[in-house]
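PT: before anyone asks, these are the final sequences, not the draft ones from last week. 804 residues across everything. Please model them as a single complex and drop the result in this thread when it's through.
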Amino acid sequence: MSRTARIFAGLFVGLIFIAALFPSLLAPGDPLAVNPSEAFQTPSLQHPFGTDESGRDVYTRVVHGTADSLTIGLAATALGMGIAILLGVMTAFGPRWIDSMILRLLEVLYAIPALLMALLIIAFTGPGTTPAIIAVGLSTAPGYSRLIRTHLRTLVNSEMFDAATVLGHSRWHKIRNHLIPNTLSTLLALITLGIGQAVIWASALSFLGLGTPPPAPEWGAMLANGRTYLHFAWWLTVFPGAAIVTIAAGATLLGRTATRSRI
Amino acid sequence: MNTPAVEIQNLSVTFTGPDKTRVEAVKNISLTLTRGKALGIVGESGSGKSVTARSLLGLTGGHVTADTLNILGTDATRLTEKQWRAIRGTKVAMILQDALNSLDPLRPIHREIADALPGSRKHRKRAAVEALHAVEMPAPILRADQRSPELSGGMRQRALIAQAMIKNPAVVVADEATTALDTRLTRMVLDQLAELKDRGIAFAMISHDLAQIAQVADDIIVMRHGEIVESGPTKQLLSDPQHDYTKQLLAAIPRGVARFAPLSQVATFDDTTATFENFKDPVDVREPSDISAIEVHGLSKAFGDHAAVFGVSLSVPQGSTLGLVGESGSGKTTTARMILGLERPDQGSVRIFGQHFAPAKESERRDLRDRLGAIYQDPLASFDPRYTTSQILINALSDGTTSRSRQYLKRARELLDLVELNSSLLSRSPRELSGGQRQRLAIARALAPTPDILVLDEPVSALDVSVQATVLDLLDRLQLETRTSYLFITHDLAVVEHMSDRIAVMTQGELVETGTAQQIMHAPSHPYTQQLIAAAPDWNP
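LR: through. Structure below.
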């Protein structure tokens, strides 16, 4: 990865975090302020991304939506990864029957498309931000579990581990010296890639009306809303869509940077 | 004889590095290949021998200059890529080294062999079967339809030879075609290669192992640092080597060299006054011991239905070396892993200095662990990739409690000293070390808890013969100085004979014969051992 790409990724992440933590710095307006007289304005200097059917400024809404999307992305990834680490460690270190039991369970879960599973979970919990987090988190966990299990297995069966065993190092020392450090870089890459993915899925749920409820400025919900006016007001869908794409791409770029710099 | 098939005068190949530095990999090489004759090119890794061979196919990837580069009457100094393609495979063919990776596992081998031929599929398949027949593949019609994973290592290597021969090339180049093969397989491939000469092919064989080259080649050139240091007819070169480096290579071959006699003689060549007298065989000062360092009784292990090891019993007296020899898949490594307590035996037991070691709980045998060390074939895989040399050693010295504490630095330096490594390497990553240095580092690490026993699993198989010699000498010295007991596992008969007091022969999971090195090598009693010894190259320089 080139230096410029790394700087770009860094700047980009900085910008996203400012947008998430202090959205007023970038967009001082109120994302919920309605002004029917200014409905469906095309992008201009005053409204860089235009306005929607109620005259709300799309730019302000996109910036203020960052926090929501990012929270869902981070929380869902944290949940999925947490479950995955637990299952991965249990399968890699536990007795064989636990391993095969969890593996069978994962295979069954794997067979259900993740989005479908998220919808199933929402069907139980009802729509909302927290249910969206739980749904995305739970449905991504099986994939992560498999990756983590394989990674841990490879390490535990490696000659590096054997060498430490022969030198008489205790189990805890082996885990602390070799397992955890050599797993962290993989995890970091998985997490950054996962955040981008989770943002997309959270938006997909909102798009279907199952995530954060309106009028909150959530990107997926904005997309769904703009769809109705797509034939004459393209800016309602293009800008939230572009935001989703950039955040997912940026997280992926960052993940790749993290992986490469470890090698 | 007729005109030479290939004539090269003053060939140089230069590579340009990423930072515009130029490296001359091959400098002013001249050689000729004649039909029906084999030329051996010998040298250690990095000597430029592969680059030289690849220049015959226009595959060097570097900048090639030559006064003459004549391939079968074609001036090849200025060929376009397209013109090269017309030569490759058709006029000049190459036998690839790694039979496992060189054949597509998803395609039947007849397609892998005959893809380059024109004509209908049926026609090509017939040609492939004929080619397999010519390399004495058993049941060629059946094998032609199989895929490479269904074939044994020897069959794969034959398939590769058939592939190289399919277009009847006039020149064949074999690059390390026998490296990493078992004794009997090597024999078979060498026989096959020698047969190419009878077909009137001009043949070039490249290897780091002079002993194998000598089996096939009529003439040999010795390369070092991209230059030819000596060349001549095989017999003359072996019996009366002129250049010091050739002598060094010859001395490095362990075949028939007495126990503890040094194989590496690097020191002599820098010092004109020194003679070989300085390197008289060290006297074997060891006294036979009654104490068993390792005592293995009835060890068995099955993986599923497959019995990997069955009823193996052996013992290693303190201060001596037991060589465990066998082909790949014979169960040597599984036996070693059970002795090291890395694999739980289904049956049988392992005792270390009379104390029960396996099968046992890890916590019960931790104290005994300090008396046992292990060396592996690929040292790099046994190091944590994030660690530097000093961290590897400190981690071993501190029982895994730390990898940074400076209080162990002095001991780490002493360990490097012991294995003849410069302590300036402490801050380096093992990836920056050469193969020989890595193996020395692995030995240094294994010596950290001052073990009484070393289990060495193919410790020198991945090394060049000249580097192997220095590592074997180091192991000899350590054994004389510290009375460490060795269990030395290898597929190489020459190495095992040189290193062992006693030898145990394994095949298909069972120990078929155990005896003194002398008995096994010169009067083997089991049919399998006899076969194995017979397959080893005759070697009388």
